[in-house]
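Researcher: Here's my situation. A collaborator sent me these components and asked whether they could plausibly form a single complex. I don't have experimental data yet, so a predicted model of the whole assembly would be a useful starting point for our discussion.
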Amino acid sequence: MAAKTVLILGAGTGGLVIANRLRRLLGKEHRVVLVNRSPVYTFAPSFTWVMMGTRDGRRISRDLRTLGKKGIEFVTAEVRGLDTANKRVRLDDREEAYDYLVIALGAQYSSEEVPGLSQCWTFYHLEGAEGLHERIPQFRSGRIAVVATALPYKCPPAPYEGALMLDDYYRRKKLRDDVDIHVYTPEPFPLRAAGEHVGQAVLELLAGRGIGFTAGAKLASVDHKARKIAFADGTDAPADLVIATPVHRLPDALRDSGLAGESGWVTVDRETLATAAEDVYAIGDVTAIPIAGGLALPKAGVFAHGQAEVAARNIAARINGSDPIWAFGGHGSCFLEIGGGKASYVSGRFFAEPAPHTTMRGPSRYWHWAKAGFERMWLWRWF
Ligand SMILES: Cc1cc2nc3c(=O)[nH]c(=O)nc-3n(C[C@H](O)[C@H](O)[C@H](O)COP(=O)(O)OP(=O)(O)OC[C@H]3O[C@@H](n4cnc5c(N)ncnc54)[C@H](O)[C@@H]3O)c2cc1C
């Protein structure tokens, strides 16, 4: 059997899992090559803990170059474009050929769509979470707006988690009466894809802690001087500290790939993760997968992970000469930290018809410790 090269673009959640899994499933004669712009991986679910100071960047980061010891070839480079007709990928200063390609480039952050957004605070990347950790102790009175700027954004519970953890922080500091916290989202209710009962449970958590909530609010601009945020429907609101999700969009490297559909994201077969191009798969946030109710599968690491497991097995089966029989079923779960050492847990079958079938458990200490255990296990298992 001729030696094959599987090229994986992006070493985030999906890329990390699929590289590890393929390395175990394929013989040593086959190459598993993993490309990422940075040699450092960071565990995003812990960013809210970084913001609150219970984690630091070093503890949740790992050096991707150490994957070499497992036989995964790691390349630090920027992906510039694809040539799927000739099975090649353009990197910074050279091209890399592949037999099988896995696109796991995630969502690209952007702020140019919304005036003032680039100067807002965010915990959607490590530097932002570290910056907030410095800023929050200095902010002792006024109004914090936690804004889900535009849809889709990854980890739909994260803005709620951030708001609940800020509430917990200011209560402990006995400053909560002086600090007003309000969440804004373009969705009609929180975590829409998980269903109304989950949204209702999140609303009760917010109301129980005196956190304001506005649905259907699409951020149009932020006026830092006037301390105001304005929305697409013409309304506005005061905001002394704006913590916002960035706009998420298709990575520039894929703009001319021909793989993006009407959604603006890469189109895949939702069970096999195959794209329209031969031997090209896409997993994780870079894809848009339709589910019941005209919605899309949320962008979350748990799905990137599940998709990576399926695509790895099917690629390995094809290389090893057996049938690619694995299918992604849309199962997923997620923690929602609420502060005070407690968390809730949302899980469900997102491909269920006529609507996703989901449940929300907690909040309790158990789910908080389950998340801490998951973080530890994750950083150990894939490195
Ligand atoms: C604050 C926060 C909390 C979260 N909490 C959870 C949670 O509790 N549970 C959960 O399931 N999900 C959570 N997520 C979401 C989760 O992190 C993402 O959905 C997941 O990482 C997506 O995986 P991915 O492999 O598709 O993309 P990513 O993990 O984003 O990886 C993409 C990789 O590609 C690289 N890349 C991109 N473009 C290029 C290029 N042109 N050249 C080279 N490299 C490139 C990036 O640097 C990155 O390393 C959270 C996210 C955030 C921000």
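Model: Some features of this prediction you could bring to your collaborator: The mean pLDDT is 97. The two ends are 29 Å apart (CA to CA).
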